Automatic annotation (TrEMBL):
Coiled-coil regions listed in the entry: none
Residues annotated as domain Rhodanese: 17-105
InterPro entries in alphabetical order: GlpE_sulfurtransferase, Rhodanese-like_dom, Rhodanese-like_dom_sf
Domain of life: Bacteria
Protein name: Rhodanese
């Protein structure tokens, strides 16, 4: 299966249009507590295989992490598991903070 990508600005535009996107954040709990996109749900990358059945394969899922690398791995895992509409957020939460919502803290 193919994994699509989108930029933070593209995600913001889609959310503002009210598109029904499921925002899956695959970062660790401490990262999620520090900075997140409102409405996102956290399942860490290493816990994803155990929680895959909690996800709706019919829903469009956007996978988020810090810079886009863990989310890319998670997106490929989900696509390989048969999820047809998976998108990776390029640049992750860091790009979201830089280009869309400066109230979301950046971290290293």
């Amino acid at each position: 299966m193919t994994v699509k990508t989108l930029t933070a600005l593209e995600l913001k535009a889609r959310l503002e249009k009210g598109e029904p996107l499921f925002l899956l954040d695959v970062r660790e709990d401490y990262e999620f507590k520090y900075a997140r996109i409102d409405g996102s749900v956290r399942i860490s990358l290493n816990q994803l295989p155990q929680h895959i059945y909690e996800l709706d394969a019919k829903q469009a899922i956007v996978v988020i992490c810090h810079h886009g690398m863990r989310s890319q791995r998670a997106a490929h895992f989900l696509a390989d598991a048969g999820f047809p509409d998976i998108t990776n957020l390029q640049g992750g939460i860091d790009a979201w903070s830089l280009y869309c919502d400066s109230s979301v803290p950046r971290y290293s």
